[in-house]
Design a protein that fits this description.
329 residues, alpha/beta, nine-stranded mixed beta sheet, 13 helices, 45% helix, binds 3-deoxy-alpha-D-manno-oct-2-ulopyranosonic acid
């Protein structure tokens, strides 16, 4: 029939036309993350989806997969590189596995605060470092979000004032060399474990503690199975909202702009919510009966900075980069 031929003809022409996807055939963007639903970096994903829909109606099909149900924590970059996943929120630790220069952003006590983080990545430093990710990993970083400032959260009652007090303490870290290095630099005995297994490990005593920003301690309910929070402020952590290069390259300029703007809107939502909540949470946890205190932060800072500067990791850092990062005001 004529209408059948018309439909076939349309389908054929849309398959042949390069450039913007047709509304009937939107670009699928599956996002995989270990984040739990009430954490800010999970809540920012529907914002990304809405903002993108506003800017490019019908052109994208954003699918959000939380709790590492689609891909295991840390496997997202490889999945994007192999063409099995379109989007993820990756960490500097994930990137450092493939680009040693990036381990600079895994170092404790380098980025000073969320504002410093935003400024560093908005500067030529960010431009250079993102280009490495694009060139060497084929991954496009869309925007950097503030994951929060990492603190120690322990189930044991021992008071921790200096790195020496962490000797023998089984501290869960995410599973990669650079994460374990950070745990060791803090003075602890680091054990690798996926995010989704922390709660049970705390509950059963398989680990003595974990480190995460306070909003995550709340969202994942770690406060239910721990006794204290030691405010070390040891890592101002980032999360990079990223797109597989193959997907990025399929987009036309307008779609690229829409994706970048939606990513910015999402991280702005995350940053605002997280920074506001983070200010409140120490007091909230104390009120719930957890012991919350500031250790000798200078002792942690000098111990951690020394460990990084004397390590193999820092040999791969771009020349002069520490100074350039420090100079960002
Ligand atoms: C974690 O496993 O402790 C961590 O905070 C590491 C981050 O890089 C990130 O993967 C995060 O978990 C997840 O998004 C869960 O919040």
């Amino acid at each position: 029939s004529l209408s059948r031929r018309l439909v076939l003809g349309l389908a054929l022409s849309s398959a042949l036309v390069a450039g913007p996807a047709f509304a009937a055939n939107p670009v699928k963007l599956r996002i995989s993350t270990p984040a739990v639903d009430s954490d800010w970096h999970a809540k920012m994903l529907p914002v990304f989806k809405e903002e993108l829909e506003k800017r490019a109606p019908g052109q994208f099909d954003v699918e959000i997969h939380l709790n590492a149900t689609l891909f295991k924590q840390g496997t997202e970059p490889a999945a994007m590189q192999r063409g099995n996943l379109e989007m993820a929120m990756i960490s500097a630790f994930d990137i450092a596995k493939q680009i040693p220069e990036w381990s600079i952003f895994t170092a404790g006590y380098l980025i000073r605060d969320p504002e410093h983080q935003q400024k560093v990545f908005a500067s030529d430093i960010g431009e250079e470092m993102y280009k490495l990710v694009e060139d060497k990993m084929g991954i496009k970083v869309l925007a950097v979000g503030y994951l929060g400032t990492r603190q120690l959260n322990l189930r044991i009652e021992k008071e921790v004032k200096t790195p020496a007090d962490l000797a023998g303490v089984k501290l869960r870290m995410p599973g990669s060399d650079t994460w374990l290095f950070l745990g060791k630099a803090l003075g602890a005995n680091p054990l690798p474990l996926a995010f989704g297994e922390i709660y049970t490990a705390l509950q059963t005593g398989a680990i003595d503690g974990q480190d995460n920003p306070l909003p995550t301690v709340r969202a994942a309910k770690f406060y239910e199975v721990t006794k204290q929070i030691v405010l070390t402020d040891h890592l101002v952590d980032s999360i990079f909202l990223s797109l597989a290069g193959a997907t990025w390259n399929k987009l036309d300029d307008k779609q690229k702009e829409a994706v970048l703007e939606a990513a910015q809107a999402a991280v702005a939502f995350n940053n605002e919510g997280r920074i506001g909540e983070e200010r409140q949470l120490a007091a909230d946890f104390a009120q719930q009966g957890l012991k919350v205190y500031r250790p000798d932060v200078e002792a942690f800072r000098s111990h951690v900075q020394k460990a990084y500067l004397e390590s193999e990791l820092s040999k791969a850092w771009p020349k002069g980069m520490v100074e350039r990062i420090n100079a960002v005001k």
